């Protein structure tokens, strides 16, 4: 499949820019798909994200995956970051559902080890209607159990967008879980830039350094294992997980200039999960954009022109999201006003009677 190469992979890059690629038709195809768009790292689903169980890999497919990794110089222990199924929720207070999640989770980890993959990223889930701290302990206990049933794959917790019972919107959730993991060498964190911004952690201007200082104080850089690099369709603190193409959202391109000057993200997977309209060639273009910023030292004029072009491309989407948020805010304010009025009437029956 090397004849399909459209974007040459940058050799000896200390920034492992890559993307989430398809594994359709066989897990080994993910390696070709990554190479063809110039990835220095990549993510994939280990099985169908739409169903709980999938057929096990054949020995032939496992060998093909390993051979292609060797051929294209991908170290599966360092350069590949599979993504767990979205419906896995090890923090679910309903035992039967939590056990079902654990079965799929453990299957993913074992698939990683059969392919010699060293990292596995997943969403830590939600405590739903359960006690949040109790469910964090449950999440940690399942991870400990899975670590004991496997040999080397590192479990990588992803931070989340949102509030309330969603685990990982607050970095302290991740710290709480990590503290309960018995083998600290088998646990890490993936920072998703869209999730971070949506959860209310500012990444722009001076706040960039403040966020990473906070990350180091709460969790510690030694646990940072990967980056999911996405712009955000919605503004800071919107609590919505809506990824946008690089430079077209509310985070913008200046952030990428700061990020690519940060040594602490070198030599770890930096994975694009931005929206794809036509095909994966768009990922190849964004990888080249990142390499342009990181290595070609564009002039201020060149960079500003790129900023304007990308912001114009995303202007309609940003405007639509702002209108949707304003509408939602007004609706919430009206509902709150009605609720307060009802509660006031219940507490003041005499006042209501006089009216």
From TrEMBL:
Residues 319-355 are annotated as: Disordered. Residues 328-340 have a biased composition (Basic residues). Residues 32-290 form the Xylose isomerase-like TIM barrel domain. CDD domains: AP2Ec. Pfam families: AP_endonuc_2. Its cofactor is Zn(2+). GO terms for molecular function: 3'-tyrosyl-DNA phosphodiesterase activity; DNA binding; DNA-(apurinic or apyrimidinic site) endonuclease activity; double-stranded DNA 3'-5' DNA exonuclease activity; lyase activity; zinc ion binding. GO terms for cellular component: mitochondrion; nucleus. InterPro entries: AP_endonuc_2, AP_endonuc_F2_Zn_BS, Xyl_isomerase-like_sf, Xyl_isomerase-like_TIM-brl. GO terms for biological process: base-excision repair. The keyword Zinc applies. It comes from the Eukaryota. Keywords: DNA damage, DNA repair, Hydrolase, Lyase, Metal-binding, Zinc. Belongs to the AP endonuclease 2 family. This is Apurinic-apyrimidinic endonuclease 1.
